[in-house]
Write a structure and sequence with these properties.
The protein is an all-alpha fold. Helices cover about 85% and strands about 0% of the residues.
Length: about 140
């Protein structure tokens, strides 16, 4: 595509498509971070629950308090809180990246006539759309 970009779209279209690809990559990166943060948070809370249930079943109520007052308990609770905070922050960033990508994608679809302003460019646009969907998971066929 890079060698024949003049044949596929106008310079404005090229900038929009490049930005669209970058935003899609950012969205995917954020989604992966949210997934990883979710698994880490779940694992840490599961570990915390297993520890609590094992202490409760052994009828050692005082040891629960001692555990959480010790350095190990504090670290475990801090990691759980930190993982939860990281998950919330990354989820917000992921939602923002998805919104920005969707807005730009809708703009490209709306400006189809402007970006591919001749019949020849419109013919090439379908090859470009297929390439974008295959290589970058960007669907410009419809909103």
């Amino acid at each position: 595509m890079a060698g024949y970009k003049e044949a596929y779209m106008t310079p404005i279209g090229e900038r929009l498509i490049r930005e669209l690809i970058e935003r899609k990559q950012e969205e995917k990166k954020r989604e992966r971070l949210v997934t990883v943060a979710g698994w880490i948070t779940t694992a840490m809370f599961a570990l915390l629950l297993v520890l609590l249930f094992s202490m409760v079943e052994s009828n050692v109520g005082a040891s629960i308090m001692q555990f959480f007052l010790s350095a190990y308990g504090f670290v475990l609770v801090a990691i759980c809180a930190g993982a939860s905070a990281f998950l919330i922050i990354e989820k917000k960033k992921s939602d923002k990246a998805e919104e920005e990508y969707t807005e730009l994608r809708n703009e490209v679809v709306e400006r189809y006539e402007e970006i591919w302003n001749t019949e020849q460019l419109r013919e090439y646009s379908y090859a470009l759309f297929e390439w974008l969907e295959r290589e970058h998971d960007v669907n410009l066929y419809h909103r």
